[in-house]
Amino acid sequence: MNPLSFIGSPIKTLWHAFAMPFKAIFVVGLCFFINQFTSPAHAWWHWVALGMGIAVLVAWARALKTIVLLLVVFYVGRWIYRRYGEAAKARFDQWVGTRGTAPAGSAGESAPAGSAGASAPRPAGDVLRLVGNEPAMRSAGIVH
Q: Is the pLDDT confidence value at 109 over 70?
């Protein structure tokens, strides 16, 4: 069993917790009717109800664990953003703004407002080279 499976399946866990009571009602009801038609003198359907009740409680406990984990991640992320957010965002924007090609416009013009970190679009040859698609580069006639 993967010890980190809770990271990839919170929606599945929550859906299971929602759907499990309905499944339990269906299974217990079906077993009740089978018990009434086959051996009404010996009631065994209540053992099915006990087992399904335990399954519902386990599903709800897993959902609660998932909800608590998601809340912890949310509040820790919110605290980190409030503590370091604006300064870290400004440093990142400055770092991104100093990398790459020249900003939009000609070499002597300043970039328009709101495009502080924007760079000119990359040529198709660079993109295809990054993807590693040499046949497409040859068919487009952009091989150097």
A: no
Total Cβ atoms within 10 A of residue 11:
9
Cα gap 7→65, rounded to integer Å:
12
d(C-alpha 95, C-alpha 91), whole Å: 6
Gap between the Cα atoms of 64 and 62, Å rounded: 5
Q: Give the number of residues written for the chain.
A: 144
Per-residue burial over 38-74, b = 16 or more CB atoms within 10 Å of its CB, e = otherwise: eeeeeeebeebbeebeebbeebeebbeebeeeeeeee
Of 51 and 82, the structure prediction assigns the larger pLDDT to 51
- The answer to whether residues 66 and 14 touch, using CB atoms and an 8 Å cutoff, is yes
pTM above 0.85, yes or no: no
How wide is the angle at C-alpha 67 spanned by C-alphas 88 and 6, nearest 5°? 85
pLDDT at 24 over 90: yes
